[in-house]
Design goal:
This protein is an alpha+beta fold. Helices cover 17% and strands 39% of the residues.
């Protein structure tokens, strides 16, 4: 064999073997009715009163390991989050208390509620044995409750995590109950500025422009038919110029994330909801939160693409499948069916830490 062909052959083998990485993907796969709908589900639901949920695994981690042309895929029924201080493990905690009429000072029809309160919040552990023990003994009912506080993780990275949810409470007033959709942000290992409000990062004029653009998308309120100015009155509220309830939401997109503004608007009675605006292009909020801004690519909103640190591998996630492709040859290395509601995390380890991350799924 000619020397040049031997060299190319050996180079090809060495190059193939040098490709090594591990990716941990976090998925929201909660199919309880509460997770899939708004706050109203707790007051007009008929399908959640069938006893306890025996296996409540609302979150999932998928591990993708590539070494050369060999790809392995792993799975865990909880979140695995790598931080600078080591791995932490997360799921949702549900605390339910039975209905007790003595806790309230007004009358409600007998048998209307089976729970006085239902609280769903993220919970984290420092060992896999602790979280597995917790999940084995958690059996929520998700029945109608008098008071509800619900938060599910919508985005998480080693620095912070964000939640989406709602709060509601039945009372004796004419409006019967109040409910407010909400989003919160919590630090994990954060040293810089962090704020749940978009107005913590952008000036007042930009905030007004965001609210105006949000309203233009809301056909149900008729704003698209009129000229909107900062003096326009919001539904059951003050003017745009006086309104500061603007937050943000982080979504995974093509090789990065998108940040969307959320404007908290009042509805009828005592209900408030978060209206989603257009993607923010201003790089300041991405830089302040240490987020990788998305790259525009020929992908639909239903497809998310991740590129490995050595750029050898593309991981594409569709609505029902995961496809892993070698970027140099275009060859599909493997694919697998998946079922999820939302991607909530993605972290990569290069060759140095790939085996260490793999151990999180192996043990």
């Amino acid at each position: 064999m000619p020397k040049i062909l031997i060299f190319l052959f050996l180079f090809s083998i060495q190059n193939s073997l040098s490709q090594e990485f591990f990716q941990i993907l976090g998925l929201d796969c909660d199919n309880s009715e509460l997770a899939k709908n708004s706050y109203a589900v707790m007051y007009d639901s008929e399908s959640n009163s069938n006893g306890k949920i025996q296996n409540y695994f609302p979150l999932q981690s998928i591990g993708i390991y590539r070494k050369g042309d060999v790809v392995e895929i792993f799975s865990a029924k909880y979140l695995i989050i790598p931080t600078k201080k080591g791995f932490i493990y997360g799921t949702l905690s549900v605390e339910e208390s039975k209905f007790d009429a003595s806790d309230i000072d007004f009358d409600i029809p007998e048998g209307t509620y089976k729970l006085s309160s239902s609280i769903t919040k993220p919970i984290f552990f420092k060992s896999k044995s602790e979280i597995q023990e917790f999940m084995n003994r958690q059996h929520p009912t998700f029945e109608d409750a008098l008071r509800i506080d619900y938060e599910k993780i919508s985005f998480i990275n080693p620095n912070f995590y964000q939640t989406m949810g709602f709060e509601s409470e039945v009372h004796g007033g004419a409006t019967w109950f109040n409910a407010t959709e909400k989003t919160n942000i919590y630090p994990i290992d954060w040293q810089g500025k962090i704020s749940n409000k978009l107005t913590g990062y952008l000036d007042h004029k930009t905030k007004n422009d965001i609210v105006i653009q949000t309203l233009k998308k809301m056909k149900d309120y008729g704003f698209f038919e009129e000229k909107i100015t900062p003096n326009t009155l919001l539904p059951w509220s003050n003017s745009i110029n006086e309104h500061d309830e603007v937050f943000f939401e982080i979504d995974f997109s093509h090789e990065g994330v998108k940040v969307f503004p959320l404007t908290l608007l009042a509805g009828n009675s005592a209900r408030s909801f978060l209206a989603k605006g257009n993607c923010i292009e201003n790089p300041k909020i991405y830089n302040d939160l240490h987020l990788k801004k998305y790259k525009k690519g020929p992908y639909s909103e239903d497809t998310v693409s991740f590129l490995s640190p050595d750029k050898s591998t593309k991981v594409e996630i569709f609505k029902d499948k995961l496809i892993i492709t070698d970027t140099k040859t275009g060859k599909i290395l493997t694919q697998q069916k998946i079922k999820y509601n939302r991607i909530i995390s993605s972290e990569f380890a290069g060759k140095k830490n790939a085996k260490k991350w793999k151990e999180q799924f192996d043990k």
